[in-house]
C-alpha cells in the first residue's frame, strides 16, 4: 500500500487497531510474521523493548493498542538462556529445580526460537 513516492505500508497497518496482514496467530498468545525474511524496513527497524537493553516507548504503545502490558525489563528471574547449537548450559542452570522442557538449547533448524510475549 503506497504511503508516498518512496514509502509503502503493509496492508492492515492503516486500521484501528493496526494489524498487518502478514501477522498470523493470536496477539498476546502466539504470533508469527509470515514474511519475516522479506519484511519491510519499518518492521526490520522496530525493536521490541529490552531487545538491545533499551526501553522502546513505541513498543509499549503498540502493545497497549492490543490490550497488552508493557514488556518488563530482563531480570535474573525472567532471563532465558540459550546455549549454542550443540552446546551445554552451565551446571547452575542445568540444576534448576523446575526445568522447562525445550528451553535452553536450540535445535537444528531452529537456531532462533521465537517467544510469544
SSE arrangement:
Elements (H helix, E strand, L loop, with lengths): L22 E4 L3 E4 L7 H5 L11 H8 L26 H4 L23
Antiparallel strand pairs: 1-2
Tally of DSSP β-strands = 2
Order of strands across the biggest sheet? Answer: 1-2
Query: Which spans of ≥5 residues are poorly predicted at pLDDT below 50?
Result: 94-117
**Beta-strand residue percentage:** 5-15%
Question: How would you spell out the order of helices and strands?
Answer: EEHHH
Question: What can you tell me about this protein's structure?
Answer:
The chain is low in regular secondary structure and 117 residues long. The chain has a domain at 80-117. Helices cover 15% and strands 7% of the residues. It contains three helices and two strands; from the N terminus they run E-E-H-H-H. It has a two-stranded antiparallel ribbon. Strand 1 and strand 2 (30-33) form a beta hairpin.
Structural features:
7% strand, 117 residues, little secondary structure, two-stranded antiparallel sheet, single chain, 15% helix
Q: Short summary of the structure?
A:
The chain has helices at 41-45, 57-64, 91-94; strands spanning 23-26, 30-33.
Amino acid at each position: 500500500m503506497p504511503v508516498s513516492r518512496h514509502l509503502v505500508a503493509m496492508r492492515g497497518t492503516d486500521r484501528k487497531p493496526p494489524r498487518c496482514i502478514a501477522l498470523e496467530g493470536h496477539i498476546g498468545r502466539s504470533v508469527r510474521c509470515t514474511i519475516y525474511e522479506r519484511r519491510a524496513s519499518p518492521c526490520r527497524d522496530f525493536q521490541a523493548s529490552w531487545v538491545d537493553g533499551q526501553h522502546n516507548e513505541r513498543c509499549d504503545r503498540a502493545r497497549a493498542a492490543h490490550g497488552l502490558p508493557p514488556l518488563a525489563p530482563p531480570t535474573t528471574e525472567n532471563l532465558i538462556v540459550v546455549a549454542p547449537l550443540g552446546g551445554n548450559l552451565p551446571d547452575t542452570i542445568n540444576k534448576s529445580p523446575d526445568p522447562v522442557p525445550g528451553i535452553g538449547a536450540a535445535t537444528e533448524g531452529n537456531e532462533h526460537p521465537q517467544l510469544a510475549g
